[in-house]
Amino acid sequence: MLKRTLGTIALMAVMFFNVSGGPFSIEGLVAALGPVLAIAMLGILPFIWALPETLIVAELASMLPEEGGYYTWVRRAFGPFWAFQNGWITWLYSCVDMALYPVLFNTYLAWFVPGMPDGARWVIALAVIWGATAINLRGALNVGRVSMVAGVFVITAFAAMVAFAVPHMTHLPWANASLLGGGESGGESSGSEKSVTSLLAVGLSTALWNYIGWDNASTVSGEVKDPSRSYPRALFTVLPLIVFVYFATMLPALAATNWSTWKEGSWPAIAAAATGRAGPFIAAWVAIAGMVSALALFNALLLSYSRIPLVMAADGLLPKPLAVMDARGTPRNAVLASAVCYSVFVLLPFAKLVVADVVLYAVALLMELASLIALRRKEPELRGVFRLPFGARGVTALAALPAIVLIALVWLSLADGDSALPAVIGSIVAIVLGVPLYRWRASVPGTAEIR
Predict the structure, then answer these.
(1) Residue 108 in contact with residue 287, Cβ under 8 Å?
(2) Could you give phi then psi for residue 14, rounded to 5 degrees?
(3) I need a surface site. Which of 39, 315, 341, 397 has the fewest CB within 10 A?
């Protein structure tokens, strides 16, 4: 039986690692696009992507604070077929998403142990996965506690970096850079139209990746104290916190270093270059923070993602053993099954993973946005503690903003035949497979009646 153990602060910490985990990957965004476009993307996306999503998710989570979160919203609005598609797509992007964090762990471990062989990286990646699994098997409360400690450690590390970098700022953060990289201080020129399209596709995916996941923690609503109030409060606290962490970290670092030296996974080197005599100590602290963040990201997301097979199994859409819970109220089988799947996807190319991750997430998100529109029309009396102060048309207009961003991303990806296009095509093929999978599962003899 589920137990409500997560308070608002613990939920905030879980949500922080469901969405961000710190400014990791921003250095790769700056390296790819240059500081001007990277700053612009990170500054605009909160308003046209993150804020609309958080507002809509806050109403849905307050309206239907049930275990399974977004899956239950889609089921209530559109029925079991579309709920299965939402769960299937969620499972797909979780497999892609969860492969990223052991890679990030190894990236920052390499600051201390450079030149690790592939075999060692694989073993360490598995250790990250199964270490987080062990924490999850002890229940949601322990995941929340680990997330709180990890969040304080990560934010403190970057606060120390900023404090020591401020005296070493010598130029504006966007100095010596053209709109798309280049400029006096280095970086590649824009080159051909194809290369620009490729950079924008991967760059937009990376920028979006830093702002996706606001709905993830909704899947544990059945384990949150007073979820109808707690979830909106957590959303409206964590969103400005994440935006602040990104800019408060990135801008001083850019002003104290040469941005053309930035690359994916280079935060320790950036910290060393930006903080003068304190550089070696701060760099080591940031590298450890990178490993802590990677583990905490995997830990918090495993909590969120494992609840989808739990509720799907309870609905008869997956084998019943996945719905079994232990004495702590933990879906042990769903957690273990998830960890096994995620172990297969580690150590794949980061940029391609990010594109597929964002495309799959965005498709699932559109179903959730449409759920609120449908529920506003079908059940206007259904409401929670938080409700947006406008009608169905206003909700539709709000949902259109992230939809436009998604269309722009898909267009850029399809125009890029290099790295983003294969990821988009693979994502589309995998999404389409959800239809026959549902038909097959619904026809299995002995399957419980699908609600």
Answers:
(1) yes
(2) -60, -45
(3) 397
